[in-house]
């Protein structure tokens, strides 16, 4: 489990960190932040499982931080640290999913007891947030890429991961997953039917999984219908885009956005489908293009280098020789071009 500690007082922040480090069940990662704004930035990067925050802080206090976390990361667990005079204020966090409070001064036994309670509840009905987000991302991409077999595989994986949940806990998880998937598609201008998020009426776990799977497969069908059957292979689109932009620096994120896939998933999928990394593929395509242009006598090698995206001519010749075993000038000489 990964922990984020937020407090504007360096001494208190350090003390809480040391208490957490001495806990019997070691944390996979412990990060700290001095206020809510910094915390949100770091949460977006590392997605911790547990947040331990003070109430009174400058720039963004603990109450607003809990509100933001509850809205953006509904499965993240939260513990609030407050002074006696702040306790009534801290009660407002109830509506933001906070279930654990610690009064100052916090002692190791107090903190460790809170951690014990959290781990107990986690073992009963908790799914690590990082795993949850990763699964949502893979499901989203499978739907977008019309990969029905991959989608079925992800659903089977999630059925196993949620085996320990009760029916009502599972209903909450699947309802939340449906809402988050719907929002992901909406945020990226990929409209899908709102029926995905309607309340589940079924009661048993088997029925819940079946209903959830049916909804996701319906989204796949709706997307295919919306495209009217015209769906280009995203990897072919990506390669065509790279090939037509060899003279400029295109980033992996730029190409991933163009085909509608997250950069992380795009990188993995590109390697799997092409057998090459994004960077390596682009370098080889540039060199292939350079080799074609070198066969045209009227073009200068320095201009060819620029045409395939190399302003640094020595770097161009070094890369060309590394791939083809001879320099551009030697290659031209082999063709009988001076």
Task: Give the SSE layout.
Elements: E1 2-6, H1 10-21, E2 29-33, H2 36-46, E3 50-54, H3 62-72, E4 77-82, H4 87-90, E5 100-103, H5 108-125, H6 129-144, H7 148-161, H8 167-187, H9 205-226, H10 234-243, H11 252-259, H12 263-274, H13 278-294, H14 301-307, H15 313-324, H16 328-335
Parallel strand pairs: 1-2, 1-3, 3-4, 4-5
Helix pairs in contact: 2-3, 6-7, 7-9, 8-9, 10-11
Work out the helicity level: 55-70%
Average residue pLDDT: 83
- Tally of contiguous helical segments: 16
What is the CA-based Rg, rounded?
27 Å
Shape: globular
Order of helices and strands: EHEHEHEHEHHHHHHHHHHHH
Summed up:
This protein has 338 residues and is of the alpha/beta class. It has helices at residues 10-21, 36-46, 62-72, 87-90, 108-125, 129-144, 148-161, 167-187, 205-226, 234-243, 252-259, 263-274, 278-294, 301-307, 313-324, 328-335, and strands at residues 2-6, 29-33, 50-54, 77-82, 100-103. β3, α3 (62-72) and β4 form a beta-alpha-beta unit.
Description:
The longest helix is centred in the middle third of the chain and has 22 residues. α8 packs parallel to α9. With 338 residues, this protein is an alpha/beta fold. A five-stranded parallel β-sheet has the order 2-1-3-4-5, sandwiched between helices.
Primary descriptors:
338 residues, alpha/beta, 5 strands
């Amino acid at each position: 489990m990964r922990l984020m500690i937020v407090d504007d007082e360096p001494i208190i922040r350090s003390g809480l960190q040391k208490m957490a480090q001495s806990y019997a069940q070691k944390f996979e990662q412990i990060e700290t932040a001095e206020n809510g704004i910094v915390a949100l930035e770091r949460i977006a990067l590392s997605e911790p499982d547990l947040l331990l925050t003070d109430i009174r802080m400058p720039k963004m206090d603990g109450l607003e931080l809990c509100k933001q976390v509850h809205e953006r990361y509904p499965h993240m667990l939260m513990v609030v640290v407050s002074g006696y005079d702040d306790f009534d204020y801290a009660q407002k966090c109830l509506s933001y999913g906070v279930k654990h409070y610690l009064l100052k001064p916090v002692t190791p036994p107090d903190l460790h007891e809170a951690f014990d309670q959290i781990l107990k509840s986690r073992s009963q009905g908790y799914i690590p947030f990082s795993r949850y987000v990763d699964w949502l991302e893979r499901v989203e991409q499978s739907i977008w890429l019309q990969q029905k077999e991959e989608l079925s595989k992800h659903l089977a994986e999630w059925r196993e991961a949620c085996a320990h949940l009760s029916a009502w806990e599972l209903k909450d998880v699947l309802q939340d997953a449906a809402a988050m998937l719907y929002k992901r598609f909406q945020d990226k201008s990929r409209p899908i039917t709102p029926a995905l998020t309607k309340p589940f009426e079924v009661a048993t776990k088997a029925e819940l999984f079946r209903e959830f799977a049916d909804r996701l497969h319906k989204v796949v069908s709706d997307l295919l219908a919306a495209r009217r059957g015209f769906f280009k292979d995203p990897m072919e689109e990506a390669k065509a885009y790279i090939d037509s932009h060899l003279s400029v620096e295109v980033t992996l994120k730029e190409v991933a956005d163009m085909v509608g896939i997250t950069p992380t998933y795009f990188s993995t999928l590109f390697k799997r489908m092409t057998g090459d990394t994004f960077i390596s593929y682009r370098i080889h395509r540039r060199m292939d293009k350079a080799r074609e242009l070198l066969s045209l006598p009227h073009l200068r090698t320095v201009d060819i280098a620029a045409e395939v995206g190399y302003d640094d001519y020595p770097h161009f010749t070094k890369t060309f020789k590394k791939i083809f075993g001879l320099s551009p000038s030697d290659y031209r000489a082999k063709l009988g071009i001076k």
